[in-house]
Amino acid sequence: MNYGIIALDVDGTLIDDHHELRPRVRSAVRAAAERGAEIVLCTGRGTTSTLPMLEQLGLSGTVITHNGACVVDSMTRQVLHQSVIPSAAVERYLDYCRERGYHFDMNTAFELYVESLDETMAAVYKRIFVDPIIRDARESGMPEGTLKISIFALKEQLDELEKDWAKWTHELQTVRSGDFFMDVQPLTASKGTALESLAKLRGVPRERILAIGNYYNDIGMLTFAGHGVAVANSPDAVKEAADEVTVSNNEDGVAVVLERLLG
Q1: CATH number (domain holding residue 173)
Q2: Which residues are CB-neighbours of 218 under 8 A, at least 6 positions away?
Q3: What is the pLDDT of residue 57?
Q4: SS3 of 183, please?
Q5: Are 8 and 21 in contact, with CB atoms under 8 Å apart?
Q6: Sorting pLDDT into bands at 50, 70 and 90, what band is 88?
Q7: Measured between alpha carbons, how far is 56 from 54 in angstroms, rounded to an integer?
Q8: Do 23 and 62 fall into the same domain?
Q9: Signal sequence span per UniProt (predicted)?
């Protein structure tokens, strides 16, 4: 199949568990781009954290960030699309986290705001190329243009949070983007819908779209794509949603797929 768009999740998929882009994966992705496929990083990360990954690949183009809430042209830094959170709808989520001491950040297209920053979280942000802006917790509302709230806590704490929030009536959607991360964002935002919009803009039918991911926030793009692939380190629900399961991100899963399908 001559794929027109190849959508790749980043953490847990494109990079390994040491947060490194493995040489074989980089070569395979670049080879796919040289054959004419548009490589689209489609991630829960923010834009400023995603663009360095595209640069490591030696590529430019469009990135889908914040779980589909933002689409950006990497060359011009132009925001092509964004879904903004209504400020009034998010306060109870933030209050829940504040009461329990869970760390959270507030994301606009290019900036990330926090109300506190300890050494552990500072190291996390540094690893993903983000320089947080510390915001006074007494300020009302959220930063203008907030697209996503990300909550960082222990897996057991987020499991409990999910059970608590399952009892709520939601004006926003909650997306588990990793064992230690929960995202809150507009109902209209998802990787799948953002990828569908980009495909229409490019005139690429879904049959010519390949998507590779590893977590629950990837299911939308895996099911929309003509061929969706889950890496072996994915939860069972993600594997079941995919057309194929490949080896893990620590075993060059992206490269294995690209080399076979495009070789």
Answers
A1: 3.30.1240.10
A2: 9, 13, 42, 191, 211, 230, 234, 238
A3: 97
A4: strand
A5: no
A6: confident
A7: 5
A8: yes
A9: none
For residues 109 and 140, membership in a common domain is answered with: yes
pLDDT of residue 87: 83
- pLDDT surpasses 80 at 1: no
Count of CB atoms situated within 10 Å of the CB of 177: 25
Asked if 262 and 3 touch (Cβ cutoff 8 Å), the reply is yes
> CA–CA separation, 58 vs 29, rounded Å?
10
In whole angstroms, give the CA distance from residue 153 to residue 94. 13
Which of 146, 165, 185 marks a domain boundary?
185
Q: How far apart are CA 93 and CA 184, in angstroms?
A: 8
pTM over 0.70: yes
Domain boundary among 166, 185, 204: 185
Residue 135 belongs to domain spanning = 87-185
The CA distance from 9 to 13, in Å, is 6
- Alpha carbons within 13 A on the beta-carbon side of 32: 30
- Same structural domain for residues 213 and 195? yes
Choice between 1 and 192, residue whose per-residue pLDDT is larger: 192
What rounded mean pLDDT belongs to the chain? 95
CATH number for the domain spanning 57: value is 3.40.50.1000
Alpha-carbon distance 249 to 256, whole Å? 10
In the block, which residue shows the tokens 């049959």? 207
Does the structure show a pLDDT above 80 at 48?
yes
| DSSP state for residue 157 in the 8-state scheme | H
Residue whose pair of structure tokens reads 């109300």 in the numeric block: 115
166-223 pLDDT per residue, tens? 999 999 999 998 899 999 999 999 999 999 999 999 999 999 999 999 999 999 999 9
* Strands of the sheet with 181-185, listed across from one edge: 133-134, 112-114, 103-107, 148-152, 181-185, 173-178
